[in-house]
Amino acid sequence: MHAHQIDVTAHDLGRLLGQQFPCWAGEAITRIPSYGTTNAMFRVGAGKVARLPFIPGDGAPIAVEADTLRRVAGALPMPTPEVLAIGEPDEAYPFQWSVLSWLPGEMPVPERLLDARGLVDDLAAVVHALRRMPVEGARTAQRGGTFHELADEVHGYLRELGGGHDAEALARVWDDALAAPLWDGPPVWLHSDLLPSNLIVNAHGRLCGVLDWAAAGVGEPSCELLAAWNVFPAERERFRARLGVDDASWRRGRGWAVAQAAHALVYYRDTNPGMVEMADRSLRALAQESV
């Protein structure tokens, strides 16, 4: 996916576990297929998952994500992974890595949601719970500021979309987001990457876990609206109502969604089919909101 990524294998993890956490060294290791763009994921035994970054300098360091997970533990209405261990580099693998508790469930597929309205309500409850958390000492979320510095870059991505996308409609949505009033409220806690690949649902289609807190932190809340076009586009107005989103925040939320999806579709077009599928779905929903 990236020119500078390194290959990470189950053998690497087995070696690292043997060196640093020998109590887990004999457990089965299985690579987990993932849409992830920065970490290799491995199931360890029945109850653990290891996250090993494969690119340098992208996203939060493992220790920072672990600190976030400890902060949100118990604060949300459903589980988040528990940090079980932080591993260190060795002579062959250059980054910190982590072992987390395994949360059972499946990634939601927007076209096949068993309880779309219930899922909207569940995720809105998570966002509200995050907003009640104290922000003192927290870092700025990856999408916790503004997106105006991306103006020209996103227009470039929109020109490269192809695939039957209405680039002109999407450009109007993007320009409208750039013109929206800025947030003037206090910073709040954000997950900031609420995509289907970071959520898990149970057999009834209800949310049962929120994953990947590498981008989390504090900032202005419109980036949480990524879910409206990525997770349950047919129920996005219900999500808006549950969060009490005003017009300016909705416009900014559309901007974050356009920026994320346009970049993902162009950058990962030939390397990450799952990410491209999510981006394609989001862009088609966003084009319907052209102003």
Give me a quick take on this structure:
The protein is an alpha+beta fold and 291 residues long. It has 9 helices and 9 strands. The radius of gyration is 19 Å and the shape is globular.
Describe this structure in words.
- Helix 8 runs antiparallel to helix 9.
- The relative contact order is 0.15.
- The chain folds into two domains: 10-101, Phosphorylase Kinase, domain 1 (2-Layer Sandwich), CATH 3.30.200.20; 110-287, Aminoglycoside 3'-phosphotransferase, Chain: A, domain 2 (Alpha-Beta Complex), CATH 3.90.1200.
- It is built from nine helices and nine strands.
- The protein is α+β, with helices and mostly antiparallel strands and 291 residues long.
- Strands 1-2-3-5-4 form a five-stranded antiparallel beta sheet, with helices on both faces. It has a two-stranded antiparallel sheet with strand order 6-9. A two-stranded antiparallel ribbon has the order 7-8.
- The mean pLDDT is 94.
- The longest helix is centred in the C-terminal third of the chain and has 21 residues, at 247-267.
Mean pLDDT: 94
Number of domains: 2
CATH fold assignment of the largest domain: Aminoglycoside 3'-phosphotransferase, Chain: A, domain 2
Number of strands: 9
Strand content: 5-15%
Q: Portion of residues in helices?
A: 25-40%
CATH superfamily of the largest domain: Aminoglycoside phosphotransferase (APH), C-terminal lobe
The coarse overall form would be globular
CATH level-two architecture of the largest domain: Alpha-Beta Complex
Which CATH C-level class of the largest domain is it?
Alpha Beta
Strand order of the largest sheet: 1-2-3-5-4
Low-confidence stretches: none
Main beta sheet, described? 5 strands, antiparallel
Oligomeric state of this protein: single chain
Rounded radius of gyration (Å): 19 Å
The rounded distance between the terminal residues' Cα atoms is: 34 Å
The topology string of helices and strands comes to HEEEHEEHHHEEEEHHHH
Class by alpha and beta content? alpha+beta
State the helix count. 9
